[in-house]
Amino acid sequence: MGAVELHARASRDYETRLAETQKLLIQAASEFAPLKQASSLGAEDVVITHLINSLELDIPVFVLETGALHQETLDLLARTHATSRAPVEVYRPVQEHVVQFVAREGKDAMYRSIDLRKACCGIRKLEPLERALAGQKAWITGLRREQSAARAEVPLIDTGDVVKNGRTKINPLSNWTWGDVWHYIQQNQVDYNPLHDQFFPSIGCAPCTRAISLGEDFRAGRWWWESGETTKECGLHVKPEASESLPVAASAQGHFAEAK
Ligand code: SF4
After folding, report:
1. Could you tell me the pTM of the whole model?
2. Where are the alpha helices (DSSP H) in 41-140?
3. Atom of ligand 1 nearest to the CA of 205
4. CB 41 within 8 Å of CB 76
5. Is residue 208 flagged as an active site residue?
6. CA 90 to chain centre
7. I want to staple 205 with a disulfide (CB 3.0 to 4.6 A). Which of 27, 68, 174, 232 is the partner?
8. What is the helix (H) or strand (E) element at residue 35, kind and residue range?
9. What is the CA(166)–ligand 1 centre distance, in A?
10. Which residues form the pocket of ligand 1, taking CB atoms under 6 Å from any ligand atom?
11. How would you list the strands of the sheet with 157-158, edge to edge?
């Protein structure tokens, strides 16, 4: 059974959530420009890219091609490149930094310590992310509250980083369920990563992602050898201490009013 058959199950207020998400994206395109969508090509992100394309929004999509992605993810990236109306930008790490790190620490360094794992994420993800977001007023992510305890309070619009780097983070699917995501994929025949059919709910770099078993946490397959919820992030979405977040319950229109 594939991911669509397994998971597609719209929640009771799915249509309302979808309408709010569309409204949020339309307003974001005008009120937060320039902005981009950060896509890992996971299920949530392909939904957002599909929405951006179907609404014909002027929002580029970028992918961090870390040099360690699964072939299935690279194949989906190529297909997205070929079919997306919105421009698809690819950011890669500085090759020299990767070569030096691997020569010094070995290609499996991430398994030896959290510090080395974070150093690898810093080179392959965080530095390219900063380049991707340079000059942007906002970015769009596929974060959902349901994904983990660390993400349980993800707001639709997160102004926590505005003081630090001037950027707002927009999480249009923050209150969607996993069933909503797959219902959208099913309804709209959205192309997705076939790894989702092999029990990979969350997909990152190949060395750091495994399939999960029945009953395991959504992100259990990410950095599975590490313990502790707080370490299960690569740094892309780690909140600064004095982060100021907006509540998720208000309407999208209300969020815009509050976020200004
Ligand atoms: S997820 Fe793993 S391979 Fe990818 S950048 Fe982080 S440590 Fe390196």
Report:
1. 0.88
2. 43-54, 71-83, 95-105, 114-121, 127-133
3. 4
4. yes
5. no
6. 15
7. 68
8. strand 35-39
9. 26
10. 66, 68, 110, 117, 120-121, 124-125, 204-205, 207-208, 234
11. 88-91, 61-64, 35-39, 138-140, 168-170, 157-158
pLDDT tens, residue by residue, 176-215: 999 999 999 999 999 999 999 999 999 999 999 999 888 8
pLDDT at position 171 is 97
pLDDT digit string (tens) for 50-60? 999 999 999 99
What is the dihedral sign for C-alpha 60, 65, 69, 73?
A: positive
Q: Which of 26-30, 162-166, 254-258 has the lowest mean pLDDT?
A: 254-258
Ligand 1 centroid vs 12 CA: distance in angstroms?
37
Distance CA 151, CA 72 (A): 26
Q: Report the alpha-carbon distance of residue 149 to residue 135 in Å, rounded.
A: 31
Atom of ligand 1 nearest to the CA of 204: 1
Which pLDDT value is given to residue 243? 34
- C-beta neighbour count of 251 within 10 angstroms: 12
